[in-house]
């Protein structure tokens, strides 16, 4: 089973960050929250590993 990778692993991360910001342009706070939720569910489905997803949830949650 793969472990959660928390080491920076993206090339051209600035471009990706800009895309993430731009996808919220013109949306209300509620619409942006729904968009983040849809994106998270799509990525969770892609990962397809419950343990890795649970590790990511734990890592993302503030202390």
Q: Quick gist of this model?
A:
The protein is mainly α and about 60 residues long.
3D structure, described in words:
- The chain has 63 residues and is mostly helical.
- Helix content is 63%, strand content 0%.
- The mean pLDDT is 92.
- The tally of helices reads 3
Query: What form results from the Cα inertia axes?
Result: globular
Helix/strand structural class: mainly alpha
Biggest sheet descriptor: none
Ranges where pLDDT stays below 50 over 5 or more residues in a row are none
Percent in helix = 55-70%
Secondary-structure element series? HHH
Note the beta-strand portion: under 5%
The CA-CA distance between the termini, in Å, is 26 Å
SSE layout:
Elements: H1 13-22, H2 29-47, H3 50-60
Defining key terms:
single chain; 63 residues
């Amino acid at each position: 089973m793969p472990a959660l990778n928390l080491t920076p692993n993206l090339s051209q991360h600035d471009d990706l960050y800009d895309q993430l910001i731009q996808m919220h342009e013109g949306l209300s706070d509620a619409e942006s929250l729904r968009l983040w939720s849809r994106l998270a569910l799509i990525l969770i489905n892609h990962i397809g590993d419950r343990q890795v997803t649970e590790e990511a949830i734990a890592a993302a949650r503030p202390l």
